[in-house]
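Review session, final week

We close the course with one last complete record, chosen because it touches almost every idea we covered. It is Putrescine-binding periplasmic protein, a protein from Marinomonas pollencensis with 387 residues. Go through it on your own first, then we will talk.
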Amino acid sequence: MRALKTQKNVIYQAKFMIQGEQKMKMSHACISAVCAAFISSSALAEDKVLNIYNWSDYITPDAVANFEKETGIKVNYDVYDSNEALEAKLMAGSSGYDLVFPSNSFFERQVKAGAYQTIDKSLLSNYKNIDQQLASKVAQHDEGNLHNVPYAWGTVGIGYNIDMVKERLGDDFQLDSLDVLLKPEVAAKLQDCGIAVLDSPAEVMSIVNNYIGEDPNSESLSDLKASAKVLSEARPYYKYFHSSQYISDLANGDICVALGYNGDLLQAKDRALEAGQGVNIGFSIPREGTLLWFDLMAIPADAPHPQAALKYINYILRGDVAASLSNYVFYAVPNTAATPMLDTEISENKGVYPVQAVKDKLFIQVAHTPKFDRSLTRTWSNIKTGR
Ligand code: N2P
């Protein structure tokens, strides 16, 4: 895998050199007015399209349309719901994407593989809005933050249907513990109303490691085995593993517990309220501690329209745009200019901005080695298929 990545790195670099050479050759050859017109129209064409690949349920509905209106740039917007899906596209090369949104740990190894180009911050007039405390944390994954601009951050938590769960576990059961998903005798009582778990091997296994008292970032195979055993024993009572379907299922009352991304679970709560069908959703950050992640904006090394990507990044960095993003998706944004424009429903929501005592129990994931990743992928597929 490492060899493969090095090879990709070389391919990326080679592609750039070829592109650079072609541009140079073109500018030497293009001395006529026709050529001049060609260059300016192709530069213009570069600016008029932007191919974005972002997480699902992660943008304000009118944000892209407003950007298109303001800039005249046409945005093609695709979505994914796992870092693995994004990484597969990036590593295959020639994804055609100009802007992607990896999480910190995955991003770190992608940077090392040469997947991203450097971002010229002098072209981002709104970069000053970035919360420097958060940026310094992200710098642990990308020295000098050369290849990223933070987009949003959050945790993995538990969303639940208050009435369905109370009915099955009693009024006194504390829903702030991973016991609800990881103790087979508890999960069994919820099997009929439906438990969903993120289909995200690295993230979920780090949370289970932490739950059993091991290092969340452990690469020891015996820790992996111990965590896999915990999940496998509860697995028969799960309805499915998926990383986005739980939003609507929870909102509609089709499942009663989900281990998911905090903002997505809070969106489920909001959608349920709006639907007015009597579905009451609760959210908690597990008291055992959980994963804290940062999602970053990054420009693939071979992005066809990097200038348009920079314009979009600068747009997202605007205080008003970042605030409406946070207000809509229920994720925290690392933007100091947005803070005064946040709805109190968001700024005072402890599920979005956890209090210090909860923050102290959060952990950050580091990139796994390719060797461990292979064991993890195998183990995960065995857990999912119940083998
Ligand atoms: C959005 C999920 C984003 C959080 N649906 C994952 N890092």
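Two points worth writing down before the exam:
The radius of gyration is 22 Å.
The chain has three domains: 2-36, 49-151+294-353, 155-292+367-385.
Good luck, everyone.
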